[in-house]
Design a protein that fits this description.
By secondary structure, the protein is α/β, with parallel strands linked by helices. It is about 35% helix and about 15% strand. Strands 2-10-9-8-7-3-4 form a seven-stranded mixed beta sheet, sandwiched between helices. Strands 13, 14, 15, 17 and 18 form a five-stranded antiparallel beta sheet that branches. Strands 1-16 form a two-stranded parallel ribbon.
Length: about 500
Amino acid sequence: MNLQPHVHERAASNQPASDDAAFASALADFQHAYPEYAATEKLDALRATDYARLDQAGHIYLDYTGGGLYAETQLRQHLELLSSGVFGNPHSQNPTSLAMTHLVEDTRDYVLKYFNASPDEYLVIFTPNATGALKLVGEAYPFTSGGHYALTFDNHNSVNGIREFARAKGAEVTYIPVVAPHLRTDPAALAETLKTANPQAHNLFAYPAQSNFSGVQHPLEWIEMAQEKGWDVLLDAAAFVPSNRLDLSVWHPDFVSISFYKIFGYPTGMGCLIARKTAVQKLHRPWYAGGTLSFSSVRALDFYLTPGNAGFEDGTVNYLCIPAVKIGLQFIESISIETIHHRVMALTGWLIDQLLQLRHSSGSPMIKIYGPPDLQARGSTIQSNFFDPAGNLIECTTIERMASAQHISLRAGCHCNPGTREVALNLSEDEMRSCFRDKDSLSFEQFLHVIDDKLTGALRASIGLATNFADVYRYVLFAKSFQDKFIYPPN
Ligand SMILES: Cc1ncc(COP(=O)(O)O)c(C=O)c1O
């Protein structure tokens, strides 16, 4: 029994491994099918300079929805900036503090400019990541009994988690299902739910601009549609903005969550909440902290929160990293988000077509894709599972491990998006409820045993700005190597 897929001799190289003629022919077919790709050659030049370490180390990186990759230029520029001055903790009047405050506020303005958001309408709150932005909204949103939190099945756990704040305050929680196999939201259920906003209370509707599981792009038109029906809209843009333009002069969500490392890789630990000023006025923070106050008293047991972004930035902001956000955004602008978009979508289209064509000798499909099988309203995330010649699913973690042995970085699991996984893999409500039946009496080990067979997930390949044709070609070669093979996970 063959436990390893065929390993090509030059597997660790990004050059086509087995057959240069086959590679050249595939490339020519690809270029013919996606002529717009030629206009993205600037990114090939950057791959050879700013991202040269990928090929030097023989990495095929296909985990951009997990995290973007930084360009070396970003690191250099950040280091030069830090080396060129003396920077202290902001928000004081001393010169080193003022220098830092200037850079922090300059970056804040730049984030608004990048997303074309009017400073009259929006403000930027720096957070450690998208999750931090979502938590700020969740904990401070004025949920009450009679109020409502509606969200799509397709959401990251950090959006799902807001439901616990809503429930604790007695608000109704409604999930809007997605429908297999394309995993788009059921339009009738969406329309019905949006009708149920309570005009006497606060209603929050949350959805991702792009699914981190299936790559589905949910319509931005829903923002206005929901607002007209009485909802505040939380748009989770974390998976969308790395390769799509979000223009906040066209779309006006109340809250937007973003992790910067997903766009340009460096620095980690930086995200933001972009919030409409009118929506921010509705939020009531459950506590205060250093950095958020204008005045507080121990004797009087009271405080004044600073209005605007400062009231939401707990403690000392990540001040030395904040200027690196502007550097990252400028780097993206130097390429143009449209160029990135066209490139990743061309590679995604080709990769989907190739994977869907793969067949065992019996004619049975080798791969199932969860999500749209074409480029209609989707991003560059491809979720799939591999199947053996008898039609049995091969554990995604086994495939991930085998890909890793060839320096191919994929990601296996549910990707913190349980709702979409449950629909994609057809896990019923009863099955899921059974995992929680004896929740309070089970030890962690017993709990792991109970959920063992519910941990199946899928394999995610996600394409980003530094991906080239050779990367996706290598992935297809890897996938092809499973033809007619039965794979057993190691004990
Ligand atoms: C759509 C989406 N939302 C939220 C998050 C959470 O991001 P972070 O872990 O950076 O807080 C992610 C991360 O993958 C995501 O893809």
